[in-house]
């Protein structure tokens, strides 16, 4: 069908033209530009939920709720009330919105402690011990990625315990920098 004077690939109607072929580096650059988030877009917020016997830390949508309990003192005796239930403790609650600097420190905590790489469960070193009654859980999520980790007092969960201790220190710093605490 082509005129005899034309070779395959020549001209506008001649099919594939080598000059207009996308080079691999240009194709890679185009894919990167199309996949990159728009300018000014933030990465999804890190959500954290940490539960321990006498404290609860929750960071959701860049808002912190920090709850901890301290022992009640019996006014008649001046001694601490027997700790049989949470009713024997004072509950303290701290709410605040996180600043960009505090959010950056929380992100640094997550990457330093590799919280998305923590084991899901840490077995007890002393099976059947009473220490197993005190459970700790740490759940982190960002975007569609979630990781939950659980351990008890008898577990050898050094990485998870270090992450939890650093999270406690971070919460106390946010509290010192922030607003008031509301005891109940």
What does this structure look like?
The protein is of the alpha+beta class. The protein has one domain (46-183): Mago nashi (Mago nashi protein, 2-Layer Sandwich), CATH 3.30.1560. It has three helices and seven strands; from the N terminus they run αββββαββαβ. Strands 6-5-1-2-3-4-7 form a seven-stranded antiparallel β-sheet, with helices on one face. Strand 1 and strand 2 form a beta hairpin. The longest helix has 20 residues, at 158-177. The model has no long low-confidence stretch (mean pLDDT 79).
What's the level 1 CATH class? Alpha Beta
| Strand order, sheet with most strands | 6-5-1-2-3-4-7
SSE ordering? HEEEEHEEHE
Specify the biggest β-sheet.
7 strands, antiparallel
Mean pLDDT metric: 79
Strand percentage lies at 25-35%
Global shape:
flat
Q: Report low-confidence residues grouped into runs of 5 or more.
A: none
CATH fold name: Mago nashi protein
Q: How far apart are the termini? A: 89 Å
Helix percent band:
10-25%
- Number of separate strands: 7
């Amino acid at each position: 069908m082509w005129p005899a004077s034309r070779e395959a690939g020549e001209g506008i109607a001649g099919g594939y033209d080598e000059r207009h072929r996308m080079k691999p580096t240009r194709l890679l650059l185009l894919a990167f530009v199309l996949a990159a988030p728009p300018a000014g877009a933030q990465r999804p917020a890190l959500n954290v939920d940490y539960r321990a016997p006498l404290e609860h830390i929750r960071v959701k949508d860049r808002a912190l709720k920090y709850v901890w309990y301290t022992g009640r003192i019996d006014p008649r005796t001046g001694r601490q009330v027997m700790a049989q239930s949470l009713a024997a403790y004072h509950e303290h609650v701290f709410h605040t919105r996180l600043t960009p600097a505090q959010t950056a420190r929380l992100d640094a905590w997550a990457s330093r402690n590799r919280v998305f790489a923590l084991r899901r469960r840490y077995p007890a070193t002393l099976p059947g011990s009473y220490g197993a009654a005190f459970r700790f859980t740490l759940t982190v999520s960002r975007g569609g990625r979630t990781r939950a980790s659980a351990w008890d007092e008898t577990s050898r969960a050094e990485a998870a315990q270090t992450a939890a201790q650093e999270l406690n220190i971070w919460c106390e710093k946010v509290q010192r920098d922030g607003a008031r605490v509301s005891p109940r």
